[in-house]
Amino acid sequence: MQAVILAAGEGMRVRPLTRSRPKALIPVANRPIIGYVIDALIENGIRDIIVVTGYRKEQVTRFLNQLDVPVTVVVQDKQLGTAHALRCAEPKIKGDFLLLPGDNYIDPGSIAKIRDTRNAMLLKEHPNPSNFGVVLLHEGYVTEILEKPLESPSFMVSTGIFSLTPSFFDYIRGNDITDAITNMIGNGEKIQGIIADDWQDAIYPWDLLKMNTRLLPYVKPGKDGMVSRNAIITGSVRIGKGSTIGPGTVITGPVIIGNDCEIGAHCSIMPNTSIGARVKIEPFCLIGNALVMDDCSIGSHSRVVDAVIGEGSVLSNHVTTCTSASLMEIGGSVVRPAFGAILGDEVRAGSFTTFKNCIVGNNATIEDGNRVISSGIPDDALVI
Amino acid sequence: MQCVVLAAGEGKRMRPLTAKRPKVMLPLANQPMMEHLVAAAREAGITDFVFVVGYGEREIRRHFGDGSRYGISISYTPQRHQQGTADALNAAREDISGPFILMNGDMIVHSEDIRAICEKKAPCMGVFTTDHPQDYGVVVVEGGIVTALEEKSKKPKSRLINAGIYLFDPGIFEYVDDVIPSPRGELELTDALAGYIGQKKMTAYQLSYWLDVGEPWDMLNANAALLARIDGENKGTVEENVTLNGPVSIGEGTVLKSGTYIEGPCCIGRDCRIGPHAYIRGATSIGNNCHIGHCSEIKNSIIMEKSRIPHFNYIGDSIIGSDCNFGAGTKIANLRHDHGTIKVAGKDSRRVKFGAIVGDNVQFGINCSINVGAVIGSNAKFAPGSYIEGQIGENSFIR
Amino acid sequence: MCGIVGYIGRRKAAPIVIEGLKKLEYRGYDSFGIATQGKKIGICKHEGKISENSGSALNLKGTTGIGHTRWATHGVPNDVNAHPHTDCTNRIAVVHNGIIENYAELKRQLISKGHTFRSETDTEVIAHLIEEQYKGDLLSAVSDAVPYLKGSFAILAISSEENRIVAVRYASPLVLGIGDNELFAASDMTPVLEHTERAVFLEDGDIADLSREKVTIYHGKEVVERPMELIDWSIEDTKKGGFPHYMLKEIYEQPQAFYNSVRACTKETLPAIIGKPSSVTLVACGSSYNAGLIFKYLLEESCGIPARLEYASEFKYFPPPVSGLVIGITQSGETADTISALKQAKTHNCRTLAITNVLGSSVSRISDATVYMRAGPEISVAATKSFTAQLAVLMQLINCLCEDRAGDFLLHGHRAIEEVLLKDLTAAVALCRKAASIFYVGRGPFYPVSLEGALKMKEISYIHAEGYAAGELKHGPFALLTPETPVVAICMPDDTYGVMISNIKEMMARGAPVIVLGPEGDKELIDIADIFIPLPKSHKFLQVLTSLVVLQLLAYHTAVALGRDVDKPRNLAKSVTVE
C-alpha cells in the first residue's frame, strides 16, 4: 500500500506564518503537521510514502530527511491544484494508494478505517462547513461534493483523505481532486464515505491554537535538562534536553517545551502552550494557550496569551497580547475571530507594546513606547 | 548441535538501563540474562555457539570471550544494522553447518526443554501457554503441527505463543532469502516460516517453563524466578549478630557487618560492604562492589555493580543501574495509596508494587523522595530534598 | 592520493571491497578497480566513478580481494592506469595510495631486467619489484621490495599462489579492521566500521601479513604488537533523501551544522592547551584556508592577538621561528599537507590544535588536541556545511579567547542562515551562467568570503572566477573587466562601506555588471547595483556567514543551470591526501 501526501501548496490563508515554509511544515505541539500524518501512516504499516513538494520544497525535504523512515519526494514545480500535484506523483504509484493532505492532522485510527476499503473518503462534521468541500451522502455513499458553498446543506465535510485505485487517474481532467471525484461519481463509480475519528485542519492562523490544544495531549510527558527543585510542574509537561527552568516557575500542563530553552525564574506557563527550541523567557512572564516557535525571546513581565509567535521573534519587556474579537478580511472572506496576536517570523516588539487581536507580518519592527497594535501590520513594516 | 543466539538488539524498551549494555547483558541473579540461557543450553549438551551481536557487542565479547571459561566454543557474527530477526539469522549463515537451535537472547528457558527440542526433527518451534497471549505473537497448533501464526492482536485465537526458540536445518535459509520487509520495515523471521507452515512441516514443542523479559519490570519476575533456584553459598565474611534466613549467596570479599538481617533468596556479589544494620529482603540481587549501609532496607530489587545505598535508604521493587549514589535518607515509594496498578512511562506495569527504574551513574542528594513508576535516565543529578516522579531524561539536573 | 580497501575472510570479497571503495570516494573518483585472489588473479578496473558503474566488478569470485579508487597523480585517468596493477605474469596484484618518488629510475632498471610495463603509473613498479623478489612467499617478497621504494605509500598486495594479503604502510594512512574470521584493510576507518569496531592502526614502516584467522605485523625483521582500539561507531545516514544534489542538501543543513558546532565548542569544552596564546598560526588548504583567513581578520580585530596564516603546502618552506599555538584546519582530517605542517610545528615545540569533522581521523592522531566541528558527514566535493561549521568553531574560539566579544548571538546565528536560504537568486544566476569570468570583491573579512565564493563558483560551475580584495582590483585585474565579466561585490555597513561604494562605481564605469550583496533597505546600493541582494542587518560575524551562504547558493544554481555534475566536479577529489 502506498500513500501520497500533498505538501506543495503554501496555504496562503495561514500567512504570515508561511513565509519560510508551507503550512504542512508549521510546528504544532513542536512537530510539523506533516509529521503527524506520516506517523499515522507508519502506525498503520504504510511505509511506501510519496510526498509532493513545491512551495519551499527544500525546507520540506530537509524535514523529511530527519525522519526514521525513507520518504520519496516528488516536486510540483507550479502549484496548479491538488489533482495536478497528484499527477506529479503518478510515475511512482504502483497500485492502490491513499491520498492525504500534508497540512491536516489525522489520527491513526481513522487511517485504519479507510486503509482496506477502495474508493472511499474520510469525512468529518465541521461547524463551519463553508470553508471545505461539503459532502452529500446516500446510504453511506457520496452523491455530491460542493466546494466551499456559501450556504451549506450539510455539516459533513471532506477531509481530503481518499483511498483510491490507479484508475482514478482516468478521471482527472482538470487540476482539482474534487472535480475528478465528481467525474468518477458521474461515471457510476461508487465512493464510500467513512467518518474520521479525529481530524484537524487549520484554515486560519488562529486555528493553529485549537489544533495545538488538541494535539498536546498526545505528547509524552518527561523532564530533561536542568529543572529547579522550586519549580512547580503539574499535569502533562514535556521539557526538552538542555532546557533550564528557573525557580518559582509554575508550569501547568499540557505544555511542551523544546530543547535548549531558558525559562527564567518566576514564570507561569499555563495549559495548552507549546514552546519551541532555544526560546528564552525572562522572569515574571505569563504564557498561556500559545504557540511560541523556535528561537524566540520574550522579555520580562510580558503576557503572551492566545497567541502565535513566529520563529526568531524578539519581544522586549512588558509586551502584552490582549484577547478580543474584531472583523478582518482574509482571502476574500470576512471573519471575526477571537485571539490575542499572530506574529510572523523575526518580529521585533519594543517594550510596553500591546497587541490586540492583530496579525503582524514577518520582519516587522515595533519601536519602544506604549504602542497598542490593534490592526494588521504588513511584512517588513517599521512602526515608529 | 549448534546454537545461534540472537543478541544484536539494544532492547529500546529497557531504556535507560541499556545505556551502557545491550538488553541481553542486563543482570538477573547477578549474571547477564544471556548467561543463564547459555548455561541452560550447555547443560542440554550444546557446546558450539554462534552469537549474533550488534548493539553493545564489546560488552558481550568481553564477558563471554571465546567461551572456554564455560567449556563451550563461541563464534561471533556482527549484525551492524538491526534489520529484523530474519536478517540476524542470515548474518550467522556462514557459520551454520547442520541442524541448529535458534534462540532469542532475552528469555529464560530450562535445559530440559532445550534438550527435548534438540531431539525433534527440524523444523520445530517452541511454544508456551500464557495468560497474556495478547502481548505476543500467537501460534495455532493442531495435532502437534503449527498451522498458523498470528501477529500480536487484541483478540488472540489461542493461548499458545511463539517462545522464540526453534530447531532448524540449513533449509531455512532458502526461505529467509525470500523475506520482504514487514509493515514495520523489518525482515521478520516469522515471515520465513510461512513456507513450512503452509506445508504443515513445522512441529510445535510445548515448553514446560518460559519467561521473557519484554519490559523492565519483567526483570523483577525473572530475577525472583532465578533466585528461587539458588542454594545459597557464603564465600564472604559474616560478622557476629548477622542473621541469614533462607538461601543467601554471598560473593568473595564481601563483608556483612553486625546487625544485618537478610531474608533469602538473595544474591550478593563480590567485594560488597553490607551493613551494619542493613535489612535486605527477598528476591534481591546486589552486584559486585556495592555498598548497602546502616539502616538501609532493600526489597525485591536489582542493584547493579558499584552502586552505593549507604544510609537510611529504602528501595523496593526497583531496578538500579551501576555507579549510582543515594544520598542519606533518599527513598523510593513502591505502592499507591489506592493500591492501583502502577504506570511506568505511560505503560501499565500490571504490578501493584513497583518502585523506580534508575539508570547508570545517577546521583541523589540527601532526602530525595522518588515516587512510584519514576524512570530516571543515566547521569541525572538531584539536589537534596528533590521530589522525583515521571520520566527524567539522561544528564538532567534537578537543582 | 587515492583510497584502498582489502578484504580477506569467509565472505565473497568483491561486494565488500566495492562498498568500501564507495566510502573512500572522497579521496578520488576518476577511476577504480578491484582484484580478487584465486587460481588466477581476477581483475576488473574502469575509468569513472565506482558509485555509478561497479556492475561487472561484483561478479569477481574469491574471498580475498583488494580495491582502489583513484585520483590520478602519474598517468591520465583511464582503464589501463587504473589500479590494481600486476606484474608480468599476472600472478601478483597491488593497489597503492601515495607517490613513489623514485619510480622512473626503478622503472628503467626493471625494464632493463626484461619487465614489460603496461601503464604510465608509479604504482606498477611495485608489482614488478615484488615479482623480482617473489620465490613463493609474498611476505618476504614484499619485505625485500619495500627498501627500494622512496616516497609515501600504503600498499596492499595479493598473489594468485597464496591466500593472504600483505599490507605496507609508509607515510600514507592504513588501518586494519579485525573481524571474526575475516580481516579488513583500508585508508581510513569508514569502510571498516560497517563490519567491525575493532581496529589496529599501522605505523610507518609496518608490514602486515593478513590471513583469514590472524594478522602478524612486522617492523624491520621484528614481529611487533600494535594495540587494538575499539572505535565508537554510528553509521550516519548519507542519503540524498529527495534533494537533487548532496551539495544542496548540505547547504540546507547549514543552520543545524552551525548550531551544533557553536554548542559543541564552549569555554568548558575547549581543550586546555589553547590557553592564552600570544600568537596563533593557522595552516590549511583550499576552503579551510579561506576560513582561516576570515578567522585571522576577526581575531586580530576582536582580540588583538596576532595571527599568521599559511598554506599548509608552503609551511614547510618557511624557516622557524614558529611559536605559540598552531591550528590545522581540515574537514576530512586526512589532508596530507596539513598533517605534515602540523608534524613540523611539533618539531618546533609548538602546541598543535586540529579542527576537523571526522572522528578518529589522522590529524587527530598527531595533534595535541582536537576540536570536532559537528557538521555531520559531507559528501559533496564542494565544502559548504563543513565550512560554516569551521567558522562556527573559529568564531567561538574568538569568543573564548577574548571574553565573549561576540556574545551569545552566535547561538542564534543559524537563524541568519535560515533567512538567506529564502533568497531568490534567479536574476543573478541568469547573469552568471553566461559569464566567461566572474570577479568577487570585498574588503576586510569579506575579502576571504569573496575568495571562497569564487572558489565555489570555479569548482562546480567551471566558470573562471577570482576573488580579490576590492582595492587590489585596480592594480591589474581591471584590464579584464568587460560587460561579459560580472562582478560580485560584498558591501556591508562598516568602515569599508564608503570606499566599497566608490569601488563599485569604478567597476561599473568599466561596463562590468555588478551584483551587490548589501544591507537590506540600503537605498543607494539598490540604485547603483545591477542586481541587489539584500542581507539582514546583524553582527559582523553573522554578516560574514550570510554573505557566504548566498555565494554558495549562487554557485550551486549557476552550476545546475549549466548542467554540471555538482557533487563530483571534474578533476577534483574531496580531500587531498598527497602533498
- What is the number of helical segments of chain B per DSSP (H or I, 4+ residues)? 8
CATH fold type of the largest domain in chain A = Spore Coat Polysaccharide Biosynthesis Protein SpsA, Chain A
Tell me the number of structural domains of chain B.
2
Most extensive interface, chain pair and sizes: A-B, 16 and 23 residues
- Fraction in helix of chain A: 10-25%
CATH superfamily of the largest domain in chain B: Spore Coat Polysaccharide Biosynthesis Protein SpsA, Chain A
Q: Could you name the CATH class of the largest domain in chain B?
A: Alpha Beta
Q: What is the number of independent domains of chain A?
A: 2
**Major beta sheet summary of chain A:** 11 strands, parallel
Please tell me about this protein's structure:
The complex is a heterotrimer of chains A (about 375), B (about 400) and C (about 575). With about 375 residues, chain A is mainly β. Chain A folds into two domains: about 1-205, Alpha-Beta Complex (Spore Coat Polysaccharide Biosynthesis Protein SpsA, Chain A); about 220-385, UDP N-Acetylglucosamine Acyltransferase, domain 1, CATH 2.160.10. In chain A, strands 14, 16, 17, 19, 20, 22, 23, 25, 27, 34 and 37 form an eleven-stranded parallel β-sheet that branches. In chain A, strands 15-18-21-24-26-28-35-38-40 form a nine-stranded parallel β-sheet, with no helix packed on it. A seven-stranded mixed β-sheet of chain A has the order 5-4-1-6-11-8-12, with helices on both faces. In chain A, strand 2 (about 25-30) and strand 3 (about 30) form a beta hairpin. Chain A is globular and about 65 Å long. Chain A starts with a strand and ends with a strand. Chain B is of the alpha/beta class and about 400 residues long. Chain B has two domains: about 1-215, Spore Coat Polysaccharide Biosynthesis Protein SpsA, Chain A, CATH 3.90.550.10; about 225-400, Hexapeptide repeat proteins (UDP N-Acetylglucosamine Acyltransferase, domain 1), CATH 2.160.10.10. Chain B contains eight helices and 39 strands. In chain B, the strands form ten sheets. Chain B has an eight-stranded parallel β-sheet, covered by helices on one side. Chain B is globular, with a radius of gyration of 22 Å. The mean pLDDT of chain B is about 90. Chain C has an eight-stranded antiparallel β-sheet with strand order 3-2-4-1-10-9-11-15. A seven-stranded antiparallel β-sheet of chain C has the order 5-6-7-8-12-13-14. Chain C has a five-stranded parallel β-sheet with strand order 17-16-18-19-20, with helices on both faces. The mean pLDDT of chain C is about 85. The radius of gyration of chain C is 25 Å and the shape is globular. Chain C contains 18 helices and 25 strands. Classes of the chains: A mainly beta (about 375), B alpha/beta (about 400), C alpha/beta (about 575). Chains B and C meet through strand 5 of B and loops of C.
